[in-house]
Every structure is written in C-alpha cells, then in structure tokens.
Amino acid sequence: MAVVEGQEAYVAYAQNGTTLDFNHTFVPTELRGRGLAERVVRAGFEYAKQHGMTVVPSCPYISGAFLRRYPEWESVVDPSWDG
C-alpha cells in the first residue's frame, strides 16, 4: 500500500499458504498516471520473493502490463497459474 496525498493505492490479495493471489490493483482516480500501480505491485512481488512465496497474478493489470514490462518477476509467479 502507498499513501499519497491522504489517499491509498494498493494491491488486494488472498493468501493460501505460501501463495498470494493478487486479484486487484487500485489507484484513486486523482493519483493515476504517477506510477503508483507499478510501485505497489512491485512491493508486493518483492514481499513474496523475500518470504519464499509465489504470486498468482489474477489482476488483469498485473498479468498483462506489469509482467510484460517486467518479465523478471515471472520467477515469482506460481507455476500452477495458467493465466
């Protein structure tokens, strides 16, 4: 989560054991276009990697734009995800 100008940008997730399902990325309308979605998603992937977890990128932003732009994070994606 990031708080900017008193508003929150975040990645919503569900945890199942050591797997995090990143199912929604939210940035308030007024804050869009500042790279906040990328920042909160990257922080989520870093957290998962540091804790030996995997990510299911079910959020369309993450499975699409983010992973296309940053394929190095594919190594953290759960191998069972069939996206």
Structure description:
This protein is of the alpha+beta class and 83 residues long. It has a single domain, classed as Aminopeptidase (3-Layer(aba) Sandwich), CATH 3.40.630.30. The protein has 2 helices and 4 strands; from the N terminus they run βββαβα. The protein has helices at residues 36-50, 60-69, and strands at residues 2-4, 7-16, 19-26, 54-56. Strands 1-2-3-4 form a 4-stranded mixed β-sheet.
Q: What's the arrangement of secondary structure elements?
A:
Layout (H helix, E strand, L loop, with lengths): L1 E3 L2 E10 L2 E8 L9 H15 L3 E3 L3 H10 L14
Parallel strand pairs: 3-4
Antiparallel strand pairs: 1-2, 2-3
Summarize the structure.
With 83 residues, the chain is α+β, with helices and mostly antiparallel strands. The chain has helices at residues 36-50, 60-69, and strands spanning 2-4, 7-16, 19-26, 54-56. The chain is globular.
Radius of gyration (Å)? 12 Å
Per the principal axes of the C-alpha atoms, what is the gross shape?
globular
The parts where pLDDT drops under 50 for at least 5 residues are none
- Please give the count of helices: 2
For the record, the CATH class is Alpha Beta
Major β-sheet annotation: 4 strands, mixed
Helix content: 25-40%
CATH homologous superfamily caption? Gcn5-related N-acetyltransferase (GNAT)
CATH topology: Aminopeptidase
CATH architecture: 3-Layer(aba) Sandwich
Number of domains: 1
- Through-space gap between termini: 24 Å
Order of helices and strands: EEEHEH
Q: Which class of secondary structure composition applies to the elements?
A: alpha+beta
The count of β-strands is 4
**Strand order in the sheet with the most strands:** 1-2-3-4
Instruction: Report strand %.
Output: 25-35%
